[in-house]
Amino acid sequence: MVFNVRDSKLTIRENYPHEVEVIEHIWIPMKDGIRLSAKIWLPKDAYDQPVPAVLEYLPYRKNDFTAIRDSIRHPYFAGHGYASIRVDIRGTGDSEGILYDEYLPQEQEDAIEILNWLEQQTWCTGNVGMIGKSWGGFNGLQVAKHQPKQLKAVISLCSTDDRYADDVHYMGGNILASDMLWWSSTMFAYNARPQDPSVVGDSWFEQWLERLEKTPPYVETWLTHQHRTDYWKQGSVNESYESMTVPVFAVGGWADGYTNAIFRILEHFTGPKKGLIGPWVHEYPEVAIPGPSIGFLQKCVRWWDHWLKGVDTGMMDEPMLTAWLQESVEPAVHYEERPGKWVFEDSWNHNSTNTKHLSLTKSGHLTRENTQEAPIALTSVQQHGLYSGVWCPFGQPGDMPSDQRMENGLSTTFTTDILTKPMSLLGLPSVDVRFSCTKPDALLAARLCDVAPDGSSTLISFGMLNLNHVNDHEHPVALEPAKEYQVNLQLNAIGITIPKGHRLQLSLAPTYWPHAWPSKEEAVVTIHTGKGTQLHLPVRSEALIKPMVTGLLISLKQLLYYLKKFFEKNHAIVVLITTS
């Protein structure tokens, strides 16, 4: 796991409206006697004029692993009038205790105690926001579910509302072989490092030994919960959407493994919400690739100013969803940029797009016409999936899927006619499949590809389903040989325009290594075309398209907000706006 901080000094300003003081270390006491280690960036005038606080709450060791990125982002918030706090979670970094697993109730209880502690500080107004990417995006949502009075807003990046179905452990009920083990091993290695003696003193050695002895390998627990038990429901905020009343700004990227939840958040959270999706990997948008990057910290300050200070920044007047609609590109294992344009939606639900339904034919076509029933035994080759890229890209060379022609030859494909006009897709595609199987255990993987006139094939979405979860993820069943079943397989969210002259291709297979752990026995999965077997595409028609901006995203109210901010400090500002 890596963090991108390249060119940060060039892209993030360092002269701020408020002079910043850094408190390198402070202990935050918990009611059971454990102390959490925190670092604080504070406006120097906060002692006389208290400010709201922004909390980032992570297990990633603030004194070394995240030190560089923390030194870039937290001073920015402090320089704009916020006490910015970075806390090591219990049992990680320099904090005391043991981290027994991810997202435990103890972690959430500690967070609420941190909020109470912040409210009591003389330099804090008592209004607090939480921000975080990945783990910090998860726990921001989890704490918001408790509705603590101090928590006024959350910025959640690269996160999920469903720990079982949409995280690093399982996908569609399949063991996520490519990521579950490395992630568990990574966290185990992080927690094998000692605390900083300059922070904890002479007790560091004893605490280190205790941490080594008591920190478990998390993968053992994850593998004992292979379906959606109460273990996974805890910390999954989709269990009670009605509790999600705290304002949430959900952010992600098309190249990341954590994008699907943004659409569910916008549809189901009951409180104020905004969504932002760029072309990015698992990284902050101001430094992420593929580009274009954006001035994300400015957007964060606008969000905080609105919810923590009561300033009308115009942000809540803007569309609910801002998304980068990507253009078609040649397949490559690395992209520095993804061409496209920004598009907007004032609201979102599953009816926000015109769903296009395509039937599968025995001859391998995708068509809008009704098709006759016919059995098709899917090609089964265990190597299928080797060119799929990584599940959660961080932007390293080789992260992205390569040309899918080899993969297509190891699966059963269904292809549209050549498109006579562009087709824009925005949302969550899925495929309904009627199937039968020769074994009691099997899986189904689906890939959606953009096929260019030269035959090159770019992966634009994929999904997997453990077919034993034919009813749901809580109650798996053994399949009866030859019996026909009906399932819906959800594919990952997409935002792309397929150009005229290209074709869309759906590929199905009962294997997808290394993403999916193989079935116990090789099974012949037969799909049945006709009624019950269709691909569903979230088509964004021209009639639904809002104004598109190819340069700086800015509204009149937002422009006035920035002008007021800058002229208050005797700065001049030049704004370049280009529209299509």
What are the main properties of this structure?
Rossmann fold, globular, 580 residues, single chain, disordered C terminus, alpha/beta, Jelly Rolls
> How many DSSP H or I helices?
13
Second CATH tier, the architecture of the largest domain: 3-Layer(aba) Sandwich
Q: Any low-confidence stretches, pLDDT <50, length ≥5?
A: 543-552, 569-580
Instruction: Report the structural category.
Output: alpha/beta
Radius of gyration: 25 Å
Helix content: 10-25%
CATH class of the largest domain: Alpha Beta
Count of discrete structural domains: 3
Largest sheet: 12 strands, mixed
Mean pLDDT: 92
Strand content: 25-35%
CATH superfamily of the largest domain: Alpha/Beta hydrolase fold, catalytic domain
Distance between the termini: 38 Å
Assign the CATH topology of the largest domain. Rossmann fold
**Number of β-strand runs:** 25
- In one word, what is the shape? globular
Can you walk me through this structure?
With 580 residues, the chain is α/β, with parallel strands linked by helices. It folds into 3 domains: 18-319, 3-Layer(aba) Sandwich (Rossmann fold), CATH 3.40.50.1820; 354-540, Galactose-binding domain-like (Jelly Rolls), CATH 2.60.120; 547-580, no CATH class. The chain is built from 13 helices and 25 strands. The protein has helices at residues 8-11, 67-79, 105-120, 135-145, 180-190, 197-200, 204-214, 218-223, 230-233, 260-268, 296-309, 405-408, 556-568; strands at residues 20-29, 35-43, 51-58, 83-88, 124-133, 151-157, 170-171, 174-175, 248-253, 273-278, 321-327, 340-345, 354-360, 366-367, 375-377, 412-415, 423-427, 430-437, 443-451, 457-466, 485-490, 494-498, 503-509, 525-528, 534-539. Strands 1, 2, 3, 4, 5, 6, 9, 10, 11, 12, 17 and 22 form a 12-stranded mixed sheet that branches. Strands 13, 14, 15, 18, 21, 24 and 25 form a 7-stranded antiparallel sheet that branches. The protein has a 4-stranded antiparallel sheet with strand order 16-23-19-20, with no helix packed on it. Strand 19 and strand 20 (457-466) form a beta hairpin. The two termini are 38 Å apart. The model is unreliable at 543-552 and 569-580 (pLDDT under 50).
